[in-house]
Design a protein that fits this description.
Elements: H1 3-10, E1 13-17, H2 22-33, E2 37-42, H3 45-59, E3 63-67, H4 75-82, E4 88-93, H5 108-136, E5 139-144, H6 157-177, E6 182-187, H7 195-199, H8 213-222, E7 229-230, H9 234-245, H10 248-262
Parallel strand pairs: 1-2, 1-4, 2-3, 4-5, 5-6, 6-7
Helix pairs in contact: 2-3, 2-8, 4-5, 5-6
Amino acid sequence: MSHEEFQNHYGPVALVTGASSGIGKSFAELLAAKGLDLVLVARRVERLDALASRLQGDHGVEVTICQADLSGQMAAAQILEATSSLDIGLIISNAGFGVKGEYASGDAGTLADMLMVNCNTPMLLAHGFLPRLRARGKGGIIFTSSVEGLIACPFSTAYAATKGFLNSLGQGLWGELAQEDIDVLTLCPGATDTEALVLQGIDAGTLDDVMSPDEVAELTLANIKNGPVYVPSEHYKAMFDALLSMPRGDALMAMAANMKQEI
């Protein structure tokens, strides 16, 4: 798809949550290079300001900053209100976080925040933006999920559960909108070299086939019409295809043993 075709279908404005770092930042940079104006959403407004200034200078696009804590009950409503006057054709619901370790030892408040960020806010954003996309007759939604959402993942139990929800949400919407000109893609990356690994206490050097966030974002935009689910890593696609073909108990035991080595 040429830049002009991409702009026509998904522009003039794209919204990216979790845009201050990682895959979200890469999405923002690639979309600006394609000539789309942006709405960047995250908590860390100083990072958003720096990114916006650079993208405006490099690509001549308009960038709107929306500071929001996506763990808040009203976060989606805040974003929808702040963007009510903009013709947004692409929503990239990318923000999310995870925790590793024994489920019982997890902090209850952190688990509740993760449920809001990974599930509740993406669900309500899609619900709020869908009528706008239908009114314009075209556009797209990308949910950033994880390969861990393809099957339960011991020692990443709650995170995998939130991503399982997101996978189901994205696939359901893909089915509902398949006959409309609105693309829905659920992105399931494997190991990606972002600060999220550091925050979870994982050494990227111990993981196989670690991708850069730029590569993940670029491949995802190139495959936006190839839903409902997209796994950019051939390594992790093969791994999880194999796990899903096994008896579920055997697959879960294999996952548990692998996760114990990582955490």
